[in-house]
Amino acid sequence: MPVLSASVASDGAASAPPILAADSDDRGTLLSVQILRFLAAFGVAVYHAHLHLAAVQPGYRSGIEDRIFQVGASGVHVFFVISGFVMVFTSFRGGRSLSPRQFLERRFFRIYPIYWLFAAVYVVTHWALGSPYALSSSDYVGAILLLPTFAAMIIGSGWTLTYEVYFYLAFGVALALGRRTGLALLTAFFASSAVAGAVFHLQGPVLSILTNALLLEFLAGCALGLIYRRVAVPILLGYIMLIVGGGGLVASEMFAPEWFPLTLALAPFSALLVAGALTLERQISAPVTHLLARLGDSSYTLYLLHILVIDLLLEISPVAAFGRHSNASALLAVPFAVAATALAVVGHRVVELPLLRWFRRAVLKTAPITTLN
Fold first, then answer.
1. Domain count, the chain
2. Which of 70, 210, 271, 338 has the most CB atoms less than 10 A away?
3. Which candidate, 34, 38, 20, 6, places its Cα nearest to that of 228?
4. CA–CA separation, 269 vs 266, rounded Å?
5. Is residue 247 part of a domain?
6. How far is CA 260 from CA 207, 256, 263, in A?
7. Where are its TM segments located (predicted)?
8. Cα distance between residue 239 and residue 348, in whole Å
9. Chain-centroid distance, C-alpha 21
10. Domain range for residue 317?
11. 67-121 pLDDT, tens per residue?
12. How far is it, in rounded angstroms, from Cα 77 to Cα 216?
């Protein structure tokens, strides 16, 4: 992907160029997006680590600790907004758009092969540990295809990929209709579907996805992708959006009452967080932020592998023994996520990147599938 560029406004210290963000790094990747990807995946890993540790902790009582770690689950909502943004941003560049076939090929090879490989690792590992999956052949097929109700049967976090696949299919149809018409119809369809789900409470494995309010998060990301590089946003406003978005996610996860439809809060706050981060793209200079961006490259691997790492750590006897300590769930959740991150970085470099490069050369025979697209 070519390096992004934008003209710097004369008062660049006070506002971003006529975009929501500005230049990317030398890899053609938006650092802000990569940082958010890592933080979202890491947050989900911390959340799941706490869940698993709490499950084996004798006498564990839910309370404020659960609410604190619940914040990590909001990473899923940030992912969905980023996905909508990236699909628009990478599909309509230089006045040209990808064909539906090109788009779906890229999405397929970006998502499925690596997922299949790590799903196989899960199956083999559980078999080796003496706790094989009790799944039928149809269960395995459904999980491999990421079908509704089946997607989480091997990799627990796989349920979110069902939403991603559905969005990709719908976005592919939108591409066939042209940017303006396609995105308008996609917006109308997803919005009306979400309203229908809220009004009629449609049930069932397929209908619950087709009418879920989570679809609005993809639309929010698409909107950000459309106005990217078109709207001048003051830097101060970028910081405000970042703070309000991040603070809103924390407050919603911790304090929203059970009866409240949480997505109605998490969707706009996630969009604000992503918009704020994009606005501050040019402000990213500290070495630690570049490190976080590099870690964002391995966010998909982290998302897929972290549950297995958590389970393996709980199999190690000293860790398992301490894991039953009264405060273990709070003390070990972050270290477990750090361990998963370390393995994910290795997995990304050793497995994911070579696999993507091979598919690019041998199958797609086109531009690289980057960490951004």
1. 1
2. 271
3. 20
4. 5
5. yes
6. 21, 7, 9
7. 35-56, 68-90, 111-129, 141-169, 206-228, 235-256, 262-280, 300-322, 328-351
8. 31
9. 20
10. 31-364
11. 999 999 999 999 999 999 999 998 877 666 778 988 999 999 999 999 999 999 9
12. 10
